């Protein structure tokens, strides 16, 4: 039987993060994924919080919620799941590999949202174990938004064969938008998202975790890339982002966006080296 954790309000993310981190050492991937669903009902978006988020990510101020803001709303549910004592994998050292967002129709400020999150599909990866975290948003009985976040737990083990990586076409390249990202970006996004992972906020901690400098949040990258084409997005679409390499800040990046028949091929590159940092696709839902 599914265990349901129902949140009555927006939890304190720093406290949940601290609990999840403090218990990371004792989590060794044994026992399989728990049958747990974290839910929060009747969520009303704070217009001021949305405006602050839009400002940091580059979205226009309007009544329609960005797809990535829905991820912002379910992220506390995800961390609550990770902090539960039955969740087998440690938060410390985990990596957000991919993020797919499905918008079934425009979601408007003022609509009450019922949110839910659960984990599924633990499988081997060459560097450990990857898990899909599924999230949904309903307005009444209507499914309006879905999220699929794939996390890698490095050094963990699970039975099964590591699948071969499928061949793919070259990422979009050429001229694009030049973004000069400041070293304060991680702290500013943490303030509007609640994601207080110190690798995004403090260069000392980032270096201790093996990064040469502070790194931007993956969800900032996805948000900013979608914001750049916001006025060209359809009412219903699927947006997939693959976080290939860290976006080091401060730094200068180049966003390349190619459109073909209503679909987008996106790439965020290091402007000097040309390295693909984030690769994305957006496809309309008919």
CATH superfamily of the largest domain: Hotdog Thioesterase
Biggest sheet overview = 11 strands, mixed
Shape descriptor: globular
Overall CATH architecture of the largest domain: Roll
List how many beta strands DSSP finds. Answer: 11
Task: Please explain how this structure is put together.
The protein is α+β, with helices and mostly antiparallel strands and 286 residues long. The protein has 2 domains: 1-157, Thiol Ester Dehydrase, Chain A; 170-286, Thiol Ester Dehydrase, Chain A. 22% of the residues lie in helices and 35% in strands. It has an 11-stranded mixed beta sheet, with helices on one face. Strand 5 (128-139) and strand 6 (142-154) form a beta hairpin. Helix 1 crosses helix 3 (67-83) and helix 2 (47-57) runs antiparallel to helix 4 (185-193). The longest helix has 17 residues, at 67-83.
Brief summary of the model shown:
It comes from Flexivirga alba. Helix content is 22%, strand content 35%. The protein is built from six helices and eleven strands.
Give structural attributes.
single chain, 286 residues, alpha+beta, Thiol Ester Dehydrase, Chain A
Question: Layout of helices and strands, plus pairs?
Answer:
Layout: E1 3-7, H1 13-22, E2 36-43, H2 47-57, H3 67-83, E3 94-103, E4 113-125, E5 128-139, E6 142-154, E7 177-181, H4 185-193, H5 203-208, H6 218-228, E8 237-243, E9 251-260, E10 263-270, E11 276-284
Parallel strand pairs: 1-2
Antiparallel strand pairs: 2-4, 3-6, 3-8, 4-5, 5-6, 7-9, 8-11, 9-10, 10-11
């Amino acid at each position: 039987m599914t265990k349901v954790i129902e949140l009555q309000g927006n939890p304190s993310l720093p406290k949940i993060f601290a609990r999840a981190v403090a218990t990371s050492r004792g989590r060794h991937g044994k026992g399989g994924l728990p049958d747990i669903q974290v839910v929060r009902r009747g969520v009303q978006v704070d217009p001021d919080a949305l405006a602050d988020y839009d400002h940091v990510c580059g979205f226009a101020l309007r009544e329609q919620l960005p797809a990535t803001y829905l991820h912002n709303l379910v992220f506390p549910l995800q961390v609550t799941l990770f902090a539960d004592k039955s969740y087998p994998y440690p938060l410390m050292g985990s990596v957000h590999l991919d993020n797919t967002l499905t918008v079934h129709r425009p979601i408007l400020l003022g609509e009450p949202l019922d949110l839910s999150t659960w984990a599924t599909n633990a499988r081997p990866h060459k560097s450990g174990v990857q898990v899909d975290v599924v999230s949904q948003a309903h307005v009444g009985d209507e499914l309006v938004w879905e999220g699929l976040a794939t996390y890698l737990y490095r050094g963990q083990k699970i039975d099964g064969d590591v699948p071969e990586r499928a061949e793919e076409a070259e990422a979009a390249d050429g001229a694009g938008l030049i973004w000069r990202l400041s070293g304060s970006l991680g702290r500013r996004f943490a303030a509007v998202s609640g994601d207080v992972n110190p690798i995004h906020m403090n260069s000392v901690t980032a270096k201790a975790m093996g990064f040469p400098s502070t790194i931007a949040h993956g969800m900032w990258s996805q948000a900013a890339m979608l914001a750049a084409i916001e006025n060209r997005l359809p009412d219903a679409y699927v947006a997939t982002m693959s976080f290939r390499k860290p976006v080091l800040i401060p730094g200068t990046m180049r966003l390349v966006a190619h459109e073909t028949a209503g679909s987008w091929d996106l790439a965020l590159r290091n402007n000097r080296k040309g390295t693909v940092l984030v690769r994305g696709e957006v496809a309309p839902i008919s």
